Amino acid sequence: MFPAKLTNRLTLNTLRRIHPGALRPCRYSPSSVFLHAGGGRTGDASLHSDSGVLKRGLYGQSVSHPSLGPRETQQCGRRSISLSAATVVNAAPASVQPYLRLMRLDKPIGTWLLYLPSTWSIALAADPGCLPHLDMLTLFGVGALLMRGAGCTINDMWDKDFDKKVARTATRPIASGEISQMQALAFLGGQLSLGLGVLLCLNYYSFHNDLYSIALGAASLALVISYPLMKRITYWPQLVLGLTFNWGALLGWSAVKGCCDWSVCLPLYFSGVMWTMIYDTIYAHQDKEDDVKVGVKSTALMFNEQTKPWLSGFMAAMMSGLVVTGVNAEQTLPYYAVLATVAVHLTHQTPNREDAIEGDGAGGIIGVQEIDKKVPYQLQQQHLHQFEEDHTQGIRGRVQAESRHRGHKSAVGAQRASEQRGEAEEVADERQERHTGLPIG
Description:
Elements: H1 2-18, H2 30-36, H3 45-59, E1 72-75, E2 78-81, H4 85-91, H5 97-102, H6 109-125, H7 134-158, H8 160-164, H9 173-176, H10 181-205, H11 212-219, H12 221-233, H13 237-245, H14 248-257, H15 262-284, H16 288-294, H17 299-303, H18 307-328, H19 333-349, H20 377-436
Antiparallel strand pairs: 1-2
EC number: 2.5.1.39
Family: Belongs to the UbiA prenyltransferase family.
Membrane topology: Multi-pass membrane protein
């Protein structure tokens, strides 16, 4: 063991003296992979490490390549490429990236949350023993991507001033000034036009050639536009978000069957709304202190320390609605087995410790961390009062500043007029002296 180790070290030192640049760093080598995998004893770690360095010195394998993309790495001659949504956005042209971030293309969880209720409805509407229609699922997927982007654009246009005051949202394209309001409006028009095109395709792909689904889909636009305003007037904006995000539970069935079977669609829609209340209430806890400071409302602020009982109630209501849906749709045992799995998952994910949210717009569906970080009602009122007082003081300060500015301008004007009058009198005295030859005064 010792002679082998000594030989490796002597060879390594010789290589370093002959060509110091030959030993370039490599993140992984065959020996280090073997070592990390558990091969070799602890006492032989230096031997494996030195032999790995020796091999890297001989073969000249390298890791760092500045020319690679933001998520590309080269490990011992092999290139690893990540195809995440954020990587796709970062790889787009610089002029396009703000628009992709405006529609949250780099954060796809919101698109999934909008898409999933429609897939439930399409699957339930499928004929017994048949899989859901792939063309319909694809069409709704494209529609979910476009309408989620349109909703985010509308939200950011409404909340531009609020977003500037919150660190997490200050870098959004409109709030940061990368995109103007007019550019955002034009982009919104493009998204809505494409969304209308997808909606009109339902008439082509549907087995029932009527306008029922098109009218039902167009009706959701009122919710999409009004949702961002709800946080200003009610503590239940999450309820309006649920009504908006789960509209596909109605539209999916209608697209397949030609109209809604309300005995199936309504309890499914209700369950989706309750699901949204669960994950978005959890998500709202990460912003509640900022919400108080800027003066917006949420269920997280209203529930406070009672959040867990409310979440449990929403979960019970959600599962009850799904059971009613299954009964009215004449579902069989596999459906209820899936419901049991969902109930176990929700029970496990519903916070039972001091947890709050982490995520990009939906808390990773239901990811929690520090949910009991409470904002007492008195503190809310204190912040709201402080916000109103600061706003009033800001207005008063501007008025006083303008008044001082006007007073300063008046004083400067009066002084200048006095100087001009003095100069005029001196000129007049000089003229009189020249004419009379007598000194004045």
